[in-house]
Amino acid sequence: MAEKILVTGGAGYIGSHCVLELLEAGYVPVVIDNFHNAIRGSDALPESLRRVEQIVHRPVLFQELDITDGAALQELFRKHQFSAVLHLAGLKAVGESVQKPLEYYRVNLTGTIRLLETMQAHGVKNIVFSSSATVYGDPKYLPLDENHPVGGCTNPYGKSKFFIEEMIRDLCKAERDWNAVLLRYFNPIGAHESGMIGEDPQGIPNNLMPYVAQVAVGRREFLSVFGNDYKTDDGTGVRDYIHVVDLAKGHVAALKKLKENCGCKIYNLGTGTGYSVLQMVQAMEKASGREIKYKVTARREGDVASCYADPALAERELGWKAAFGLDKMCEDLWRWQLQNPTGFSKN
Ligand code: WQD
Questions:
Q1: Positions in the chain whose pLDDT score sits under 50
Q2: Is residue 157 annotated as part of the catalytic site, yes or no?
Q3: Where is each NAD(P)-binding domain found (predicted)?
Q4: Which end of the chain is least crowded, N or C, by CB within 10 Å?
Q5: What angle do CA 23, 28, 29 make, to 5 degrees?
Q6: pLDDT score recorded for residue 1
Q7: Which long-range contacts (CB under 8 A, 24 or more apart) does 69-72 make?
Q8: Ligand 1 atom having least distance to the Cα of 212
Q9: Domains of the chain with bracketed CATH
Q10: Closest CA to 221 of 325, 291, 316
């Protein structure tokens, strides 16, 4: 029988791509999401998941649920027999987390504790957690491997990822029947090649590529390049951008790893290649055939000069490797942006 996988935050950008890959791989995902970052579609489904249904021609099981609601979680686990959980739900805006630290710790930390407690109570002890390269803080060396010291990041969002990692590690140490894979994402961009699902930031995008895409499509006038005096080839920040479909496939590989009773494992999900802001602008101009205007402004607080992964461990132990390069990431992002100039909402 097909395995049921709970996907928390499964209506979001990364979540919806994971749900699609799970369906393609023969799993039965059950999605919970509280619509904090997702647009409602018809049939009580988030629009992102309605689109996933159209792509795979299969229904998606969905329930509106907030991970901080312990009673609702209990109810859910009574209803379904899950073999594992992909835990992606959480607040994720770095700047906002500095303004609202308690809110971030409440949702990300207590939400995760409730989830882990409920899992434990129902004997579901397999989890894949959506962590972030932000846990490395300012890199002491590059590329970043999984042994690089962690806990160095300065904002509550990043710290919440680090604290959750520590909680899960301690849990796996204390109870040997727990298995966890902590995935440290680098910078996910792009969209499914159908152009039907993609990233849909509400308000002004915080991240580079959604902003660049909105400039290309004419929704914003110009990009602000946050500093060109970093110690990089062209002075702008360098990051490891990874296609969201590659990232989603990494979750399927992680689920397989849990089957080996792996205990707690940690993997970078990146490509190993860094690109600067200006290289990204150029790649997007090529993919879109449009000019992307930009102005150089001051550095953004908390940004590091360069950050890219050593992805070798994931390749060795998960048999996973990013397949898509920069051109494909930008082409797919552009297709999504062009077909959905206002994202999932209709106006
Ligand atoms: C990339 C580069 C910017 C916007 C952040 C979080 C991380 C993760 C993803 C989220 C940097 C530059 C950006 C703009 C710019 N978490 N930039 N103009 O900073 O690597 O990671 O988002 O859930 O935790 O820290 O990604 O896309 O914001 O920035 O010049 O308008 O683009 O300075 O060099 P970042 P990003």
A1: none
A2: yes
A3: 6-332
A4: C
A5: 85
A6: 84
A7: 69/114, 70/114, 70/117, 70/118
A8: 31
A9: 4-339 (3.40.50.720)
A10: 291
